[in-house]
Write a structure and sequence with these properties.
FAD/NAD-bd_sf; 16 strands; FAD/NAD(P)-binding domain; D-Amino Acid Oxidase, Chain A, domain 2; 14 helices; 399 residues; monooxygenase; monooxygenase activity; six-stranded mixed beta sheet; single chain; Monooxygenase; StyA_sbd
Amino acid sequence: MATVGIVGTGIAGTHLGLLLRAAGIDVTLYTEQPAEALTRARLLNTVAHHHPLLKRERTLGVHHWPAEEFGYGAHHHHVGGPEPIRFTGRFAHPSCAVDHRLYLPRLIGDLAERGGRVEVAEVGPRDLAALAARHDLLVVATGRGPLSGLFPRRPEHSPHDAPRRLLCAGLFTGIRPPAQAGVSISIAPGAGELLEIPLLSRHGPVTALLFENVPGGDLAGLSSSDDPGLFAKQALEKLRVHHPDTFERVDPGEFALTHPLDLMRGAVTPSVREDWLALGDGRFALAAGDAHVVVDPVMGQGANIASYSAAVIASHAAEDTVYDELFCRRVARAREETLLAASSWTNLMLDPPAYVHDLFAGLARDQARADEFTTNFDHPGRQWRALATERRVRNFLGS
């Protein structure tokens, strides 16, 4: 039986493990900490899971939080400026957001129940050759810690050498949801963006606020306070100034972080890295998840393309049991268009050319196009083909 080792327990690693077990392939998942430790960790992220990922969960029998009950069906957009733009786009199928401190331990447990081995071990670059000798294929699905930067950057697809936003996210009470359940996306030109996300946490349904702050802008200082009460006070004032559509639904007396650990800060440098690394003796490490493609979370694509990448690897692993360089090349070709599209689309929105404002203005006038734009969050390849150039945007709005 073929055997695959997976380093990392994020979306890419857990989904790949489950998909491989469904195909009858032996799996060992290497994690730096026990699954139960994740439940006590600081907020990991505020990611949304879109329809293709949820469909994958249903197929695998791990759709533990049905989107029909816990999900949402729309994006509400607000673009600030002298003449604000507002529009709502509706998904063809609902999306859903679940705290990964609930989500990942549950799926790791599912994998163990299905015969996957879970080993707690710190893995560094010097450990890869030894791990590869234990498996027919080694997949590195984490870009953190000692394995960060393991795979060389592809400069032609990695235009940034520093973060474009300072990230600050928290789980809050005291925010009335919009009339139609959905994610609110607020753009404050020159200052940054806000994603307001209905999220299921250990406290039940809460509101996640993800501030995407431009370095040096008025919102940048929001990323500095460690005091939960002071942070909430500062966040409320920044909502008032820069994100009025969310602010008007806040009850100041109830607005608060749900727990001190429900606050996260950080920054990511968007990048695309090489697909594989030769480890000697005919064995290879294949990149997945953040080890391969890192996108800023502003377009909510990270977890979704990580799951997509895992599905591509699993489908090829099931049909080809020789995991050599040819196998790695085939995987790279099969997933490249979608992954590069998600990366390019996200980078476009971080540094939007003038025609993006025209796009938003056009979407506010055309409900059918607004719905199509929103549903394309499920399909980054389709979205990029629509938005890549001014000519394509004009065609999209006029189609």
